[in-house]
Write a structure and sequence with these properties.
The complex is a heterodimer. Chain A has a single domain, classed as Alpha-Beta Barrel (TIM Barrel). Chain A has twelve helices and nine strands. In chain B, the strands form three sheets. In chain B, strands 3-4-14-9-10-13 form a six-stranded mixed β-sheet, sandwiched between helices. A four-stranded antiparallel β-sheet of chain B has the order 1-2-12-11. In chain B, strand 11 and strand 12 form a beta hairpin. Classes of the chains: A alpha/beta, B alpha/beta. Chains A and B meet through helix 3, helix 5 and strand 6 of A and strand 2, helix 2, helix 9, strand 11 and strand 12 of B.
Chain lengths: 269, 407
């Protein structure tokens, strides 16, 4: 493999040397309005985000709870599509060449654009990884090949229901990091049981050297701190979107900055 | 091509019909779908399972359903003879119950005491609530709030049968959103819950399983038609939303290349207006609800709101096997618009004394369209997939300009 070391790998290597864990916020591109997305990405980095997961709006987000569904619907009202999302990443990259950006979403917008076209445009824009909820490894050999060629990491999910065989399969296909879905349910559901999560992370880490992040159901700094004792990254999504829902357009970015700064502080303490 | 049809053996082990179908779902559901696939294969190989289903279909559903020669209608049209497969005479009034009986049995085998379903027009919801009552299971049905408004009578039927009907307020508040919400429930309660999908879509093994359970329709026709006319029909017609009644009647006819298979989609206000639900006629391939198939989508790959006078056809996707039958040209797909379906509805009411579901009226309309151009000894077999009692309010509202229709 002659792939260059990715921004994602660099980020985890740097964090490991600093004995810190990655904080990965998720926001939907174009929510609450398209103008906010790029400033919001910069603000999240300022507040301590190590990697940004940027949601690609989709009309039928089957694996997401009501909070992320609403964020998708708001973005779609502005007509935000995959091309726009790539443009936001390009804009962000003008002043930030350090922080990895992972696009997270569903298969159909990529299918529609065409895999090769997407890979080229994403690479040009400065995208580092893609996480497609409804492309499991069995159905995404083409995606993996195309993204590998473009130097983009394909990130896969594991869940509490993943069998040992599937952990093996997903670990073999995964690039960048593995995203462990911490509960049986949709994004933003009830609080998680960290001891169950710890057990599963140990099983996954026995199969892979890749970093393992945990998401779904992490709602505060204390949970993030507990998770970061045994996981390499903490993903927070619905909680951030809810924070913006209670804010005005003028205060949304500031509120997210405060929330993330607080979580970062607790994770590093 | 003939050999290909005779050896027709789809889907493959991973649920693919050529490039269509598959398992495009989040990791959390992978284990449940694998368990379901294994259990279904075991059940299929178990004669006791087949016997149990056969008993239920005969004594509870009322099978076999008859085939009826619509003589007056055929004479009026002056061409091919139209025969109707009377799925409207089943218990609960549609073909949907063939599938819910099968899946409920499977749920019992797997020890699941809670079943969930999505529904559009409410026919699948009613059929699920019915079998849940019959087998003493908890039942939750997801239904778009827009459909709840349109199909109040079926909502009440489900409640009478003891089901909980959950209104879905997201997206377009119709069938596709109900399916999203049912999937979310399943992800959350995957260990205790069996998801009874109502059409030949969704991730593998659903398209195969729902087809198999409905294929009793075509199997009966294979023996009934020769008994009635001494041969098989020249064409079989069925409406296609997700496509379960069509796959049910098509499946056993696939090897017989002498029989044309014609799927009739919902043309809504007309395919050219963009307000329709004809995904095979006017859509393009993509991924939705766990499978690759034809979808009605925009340039960004977002699913577009569909339109049809019949809630049961108001779906932006279609079963992956139909996508495959279209591409391989084994089946033809056409669209019938709202007005044509309504006209066929009224004509069947008055010439034959049969009130068809608006969904099935689309298939009747296509038969009425092509029959006059065919010789009198040609035979069209139409799957009359459901009865129209549920559609009274819609028909009354939409037929105010039709002469002679009571207001």
């Amino acid at each position: 493999m002659s792939r260059p070391v990715s921004r994602i790998a660099n980020t985890f290597a740097r964090l490991a040397s600093e004995k810190r864990k990655a904080l990965i916020p998720f926001v939907t591109a174009g929510d609450p309005s398209p103008m906010i997305t790029v400033p919001l990405m910069h603000a999240m980095v300022d507040a301590g985000a190590d990697i940004i997961e940027l949601g690609v709006p989709f009309s039928d987000p089957m694996a997401d709870g009501p909070v992320i569904q609403r964020s998708s619907e708001r973005a779609l009202k502005f007509g935000v599509g995959l091309n726009d999302v790539l443009a936001y990443v390009g804009e962000f990259r003008k002043t930030n060449q350090m922080t990895p950006v992972v696009l997270m979403g569903y298969a159909n917008p990529i299918e529609r654009m065409g895999m090769k076209v997407f890979a080229e445009r994403a690479s040009t824009a400065g995208v580092d990884g893609v996480l497609v909820v409804d492309y499991p490894p069995e159905e995404s050999l083409g995606l993996l090949e195309t993204m590998d060629a473009a130097g983009i990491d394909v990130i896969y999910l594991l869940s509490p229901t993943s069998s040992p065989e599937r952990i093996k399969l997903v670990s073999a296909a995964a690039r960048g990091y593995i995203y462990y879905v911490s509960l049986k349910g949709v994004s933003g559901a009830a609080n998680i049981d960290t001891s169950d999560v710890e057990l599963m992370i140990a099983k996954i880490k026995a199969q892979t050297k890749l970093p393992v992040g945990v998401g779904f159901g992490i709602r505060d700094g204390d949970t993030a701190r507990r998770i970061s004792r045994f996981a390499d990254a903490v993903v927070i999504g619905s909680r951030i979107i809810q924070e913006m829902e209670t804010a005005t357009p003028d205060t949304a970015v500031e509120k997210v900055r405060e929330l993330l700064a607080d979580i970062r502080k607790k994770m590093d303490s | 091509m003939q050999m290909q049809a005779e050896n027709y053996n789809f889907p493959d082990a991973k649920g693919h019909f050529g490039p269509y179908g598959g398992v495009f779902v989040a990791e959390t559901l992978q284990a449940a779908l694998l368990a379901l696939t294994i259990e279904y294969e075991k059940a299929k190989a178990d004669p006791a399972f087949a016997a149990e289903i056969q008993y239920e279909l005969k004594h509870y559903v009322g099978r076999p359903s008859p085939i009826y020669h619509a003589k007056r209608l055929s004479e009026e049209l002056g061409g091919a003879q139209i025969y109707l497969k009377r799925e409207d005479l089943n218990h609960t009034g549609a073909h949907k119950v063939n599938n819910t009986v099968g899946q409920a049995m499977l749920a019992r085998r797997m020890g699941k005491r809670r079943v969930i379903a999505e529904t559009g027009a409410g026919q699948h919801g009613v059929a699920t609530a019915t079998v849940a009552a019959r087998y003493g299971m908890e039942c939750v049905v997801y239904m778009g709030s827009e459909d709840i408004r349109r199909q109040a009578q079926n909502v009440y039927r489900m409640k009478l049968l003891g089901a909980t009907v959950v209104p879905v307020e997201s997206g377009s508040r119709t069938l596709k959103d109900a399916l999203n919400e049912a999937m979310r429930d399943w992800v959350t309660n995957v260990e205790t819950t069996f998801y009874i999908i109502g059409t030949v879509a969704g991730p593998h093994p659903y398209p195969m399983m729902v087809r198999d359970f409905n294929s009793v329709v075509g199997k009966e026709c294979l023996t009934q038609m020769p008994e009635m006319i001494g041969r098989q029909p020249d064409a079989v017609l069925a409406c296609v939303g997700g496509g379960s009644n069509a796959m049910g009647i098509f499946y056993d006819y696939i090897p017989d290349r002498n029989v044309r298979l014609i799927g009739v989609e919902a043309g809504g206000d007309g395919v050219a207006t963009g307000r329709h639900a004809a995904s095979l006629t006017a859509g393009s391939p993509g991924i939705l609800h766990g499978n690759r198939t034809y979808l009605i989508q925009d340039a960004n790959g977002q699913i577009i709101d569909t339109h049809s006078v019949s809630a049961g056809l108001d779906y932006p996707g279609v079963g992956p096997e139909h996508a495959w039958l279209k591409d391989t040209k084994r089946a033809e797909y056409v669209a019938i618009n709202d007005d044509e379906a309504l006209a066929a509805f009224h004509r069947l009411c008055r010439t034959e004394g049969i009130i068809p579901a608006l969904e099935s009226s689309h298939a009747v309309a296509e038969a009425m369209k092509i029959a006059p151009g065919m010789a009198r000894d040609k035979v069209l077999l139409v799957n009359l997939s459901g009865r129209g009692d549920k559609d009274m309010a819609t028909v009354a509202e939409r037929s105010q300009t039709v002469s002679g229709v009571p207001q």
